[in-house]
Design goal:
By secondary structure, this protein is mainly alpha-helical. It has a domain of 47 residues. The protein has 3 helices and no strands.
Length: 88
């Protein structure tokens, strides 16, 4: 099942120090998110939605995937606008 593989991947990233979870002493963690990352997460949500037997959860995962894709498109447009401003 893909969910088990995703969990294994997350554990490996954690061990290598690539996956960081903020502690209770640090309630907010600032991270930079780019459009490709959001698309990757959207695809992961969509894949999990297809494999999820619980219909309400599957619908929510699908909705999250759609929202992440929309945010990725927004970031692309912002980047295009910034690039156009820099060329002027």
């Amino acid at each position: 099942m893909r969910l088990k593989q995703d969990l294994r991947d997350a554990k490996l990233k954690w061990r290598r120090g690539e996956l960081m979870i903020s502690s209770s002493a640090e309630p907010y963690a600032w991270i930079w998110v780019d459009a490709p990352y959001l698309r990757e997460q959207a695809q992961r949500c969509t894949r999990l939605a297809r494999e999820c037997p619980h219909l309400p959860t599957a619908h929510e995962l699908e909705a999250i995937g759609v929202e992440l894709m929309q945010k990725a498109a927004e970031l692309d447009h912002l980047q295009e606008d910034r690039d156009a401003e820099q060329r002027e």
